[in-house]
Design goal:
heterodimer, A: alpha/beta, Urease, subunit C, domain 1, TIM Barrel, 2 domains, 8-stranded mixed β-sheet, B: alpha/beta, Rossmann fold, 5-stranded parallel β-sheet, 12 helices
Chain lengths: ~425, ~300
């Protein structure tokens, strides 16, 4: 039994200063202070208690690139970041694109008993963008989220055939990394002020916008829900806003780094600030922050993309794309967009992503009978992240002072992380 | 001396007018100077990871004229062809022993990384599309010799600016020296953004009567520029400097080009070989300017 006293608890009808009791994998009481012998008692000292965080977008690199991360190290990083569920992207080596590879990934995920790992499958065979992946076998294995993340499906006709096919498999979600490679080319950062000044080939925002527009049109025709991954431009936000106004099933995520940073951080060409989509202009960042608060962007997702230190210790244009994010996501999201509003924080970090991924034991308000997947978060704690639990250290936020810290994470009634408790 | 990036010459960005003019003065003092032994015993390493003729030769000549030894890396003959990383190459050359690096590279941050990894001063001899600072100093010196001053001069930089490290060097330093810049070219050749706040124009003929200097750039086919405009002679028609356009210039106006030229594209023979051209003066100033920069980097007396 775990008793969490003195917490600001996210309940269905409001925030309540209260005590929460967990027995087994379930919340059994909220409100009155019980007297229990032998219980683990945590004094929350007024910190926020809400549903454990859910990350729609994580790269675990396992199998194939386990020098960067593996399932165990990624899972440890996730619980340290307050997550009780993550969606693992399928771009492992080999990728998850068949019943066999899905079964292997699900087996790996089940070996972790302190975090729910949801396996996503590829949209195309080998993530090569040429032909459909083995949807039926993956679906039978339990896969519902499909993405070629790292790349868009480059061929509009193929994406249309994929979405037409997925209509027959209820509950599936197409998640797209929106980036037209014929426009993005070999760009290394946002095509804007800094790329102009430094003469670095840019990735213009419109490389994203044209794919988002295309995908919304295909989703509208087929009726298959579309999830836009790591939205980075004001243009995409407008397209998504309009699709939502028209009543479409379009959801979207934004990363903590796109909320916090913009292209001006790139003057020093730090490879730990290189990712795709790239950090955009200040007006894009402002549009992302307000769209997240407004709810046009549903969820914060990390795009946790580990790369070993030696891989990032190279010239900017030769550095691999991607930054880690699991351990800093809550603090960055709170510091730069959501720190004022507990309900909004938990909605964008847990409730909405759980709904998008269709996770029935995640993202629920703290009520008797709810699954005990919880995070305790102190929104006022100042700290500087790093070194990281992840095998990789490629964080844009290492050493930066952030406000808001995960104190403890509880998964199915067991403490999976308590490194933030004093 | 703890931070090597404080020495050498990695960027002109933010450099004071005093330091720029000091370098030009020092370069002027080396024009026509005899062989010197100021840097006797010093080793200068030229590490060029991209093709170059005039820049490399004039750096090596400049080092010799100051009495330094030169160690030259030719990437086409070296371990970089065997997959050695840029970092390992720099560490190897540092271990062999050098006092100064002169770096030419296609990567934008190669010069500062070489300085960080080697702990030696580095002179940027052209990195990425980012900057080619000694070319900018050469052109400033050439103009100062021609006009007697830089303040108030108006220069149109014409051509493939998006791909040009020469143009970016000019944009960082020439305004500090009082030169007013306008960038001229078809939209695909102009920068996406204008952080320098300089003039932009797509109409060369509009600018010709107002400028003191027409600075021509070649189309950098190797950086993909030729795919961004039609493949016919349209560029030469709109932007090629020919006899007719020369006649539109002010009487004292000059034409410059950092080379290599593509005759018949951005420049016609009658211009390249004509009396308005300062191209050979530019080349001649390469050695004294690079002597000044090497000498400053190694703390030699000015």
């Amino acid at each position: 039994m775990i008793v969490i006293r003195n917490a600001r608890v996210l309940r269905a009808d409001g925030i309540e200063h209260s005590t929460v009791v967990i027995e087994g994998d379930t919340i059994t009481s909220v409100g009155s202070e019980p007297i229990v012998n032998g219980a683990r008692v945590i004094d929350a000292k007024g910190s926020w208690l809400g549903p454990g965080l859910v990350d729609l977008h994580v790269h675990l690199r396992d199998p194939g690139q386990t020098w960067k991360e593996d399932v165990e190290s990624g899972a440890r990083a996730a619980v340290a970041g307050g997550f009780t569920a993550i969606v693992a992207m399928p771009n492992t080596v080999p990728p998850v694109d068949s019943g066999t590879s899905a079964a292997f990934a699900i087996e790996q995920a089940r070996a972790i008993d302190y975090l729910e790992i949801v396996v996503a499958g590829s949209l195309t065979k080998g993530r090569a963008g040429n032909e459909m992946a083995g949807f039926d076998a993956m679906y039978e294995a339990g896969v519902r989220v499909f993405s070629d993340d790292g790349d868009s499906v480059p061929d509009a006709g193929l994406l249309r055939r994929i979405m037409a096919y997925l209509r027959d498999l209820p509950g599936t979600l197409v998640a797209e990394h929106a980036e037209d490679r014929t426009i993005a080319g070999e760009g290394h950062m946002h095509e804007g002020i800094v790329s102009s000044r430094l003469g670095i080939t840019g990735v213009p925002g419109i490389a994203e916008d044209v794919v988002v527009g295309r995908d919304i049109a295909i989703s509208a025709e087929t009726g298959v829900p579309l999830h836009v991954q790591h939205v980075s431009t004001a243009g995409s936000v407008e397209l998504i806003r309009n699709a939502r106004k028209a009543g479409m099933s379009v959801t979207a995520e934004v990363t903590p780094h796109h909320l916090a940073l913009d292209e001006s951080s790139l003057e020093d060409l730090d490879p730990n600030l290189k990712m795709y989509p790239p950090l955009r202009g200040t007006e894009d960042r402002a549009a992302l922050r307000s769209a997240l608060r407004e709810g046009v962007l549903d969820a914060v997702a990390t795009d946790h993309a580990p790369h070993a230190p030696s891989e990032k210790a190279v010239p900017f244009e030769q550095a691999p794309r991607g930054v880690i994010g699991l351990e800093t996501a809550a603090a960055v999201a709170a510091s730069f967009a959501l720190g004022e509003d507990q309900r909004m924080f938990f909605d964008r970090m847990s409730v909405a992503p759980a709904r998008i991924a269709g996770l029935d034991r995640q993202g629920q308000e703290v009520e008797p009978g709810s699954p005990a997947n919880l995070v305790l978060f102190d929104p006022g704690r100042r700290w500087a992240p790093g070194p990281f639990v992840s095998k990789s250290q490629n964080s844009p936020f290492a050493g930066m002072e952030l406000t808001g810290r995960v104190l403890a994470t509880i998964h199915d009634g067991r403490i999976s992380y308590e490194g933030g408790l004093e | 001396m703890n931070d090597p990036t404080q020495h050498g010459l990695i960027t002109l960005r933010g450099m004071s007018r005093e330091r720029l003019e000091g370098l030009l003065d020092r370069a002027q003092s080396y024009v026509g100077s005899p062989e010197l032994d100021d840097l006797a015993g010093a080793t200068v390493t030229t590490a060029f990871f991209e093709a170059s003729t005039r820049t490399r030769l004039s750096f090596e000549r400049a080092a010799h004229r100051l009495g330094a030894h030169v160690m030259a890396l030719s990437p086409d003959l070296s371990s970089t062809n065997k997959g050695e990383s840029f970092k390992d190459t720099i560490l190897t050359l540092t271990a062999i022993g050098t006092d100064l690096f002169v770096i030419r590279h296609w990567l934008a941050d190669a010069a500062e990384l070489a300085a960080e990894w080697s702990g030696r001063p580095v002179i940027n001899a052209g990195v990425g599309r980012r900057e080619h600072p000694t070319q900018t100093l050469i052109d400033a010196l050439t103009l100062r010799q021609e006009f007697g001053h830089l303040d108030g001069l108006r220069m149109a930089i014409v051509g493939d600016i998006r791909n040009s490290r020469v143009a970016r060097g000019h944009l960082e330093a020439l305004p500090t020296l009082g030169v007013q810049l306008t960038l001229v070219g078809p939209t695909p050749f102009l920068p996406n953004d204008n952080p320098w706040g300089v003039g932009l124009s797509t109409d060369l003929d509009d600018e010709l009567g107002a400028v003191d200097v027409v600075y021509l750039l070649r189309i950098q086919t190797e950086r993909g520029a030729s795919y961004t405009i039609p493949a016919d002679r349209g560029y030469a028609r709109r932007y090629g400097m020919n006899g007719e356009r020369i006649s539109m210039l002010k009487p004292a106006a000059v034409v410059m080009h950092p080379g290599p030229m593509n005759r018949g594209v951005e420049i016609d023979d009658v211009v390249a070989d004509g009396e308005r051209s300062l191209m050979l003066e530019q080349v001649a100033n390469g050695v004294p300017v690079r002597m000044a920069v090497i000498s400053e980097a190694l703390g030699g007396s000015g």
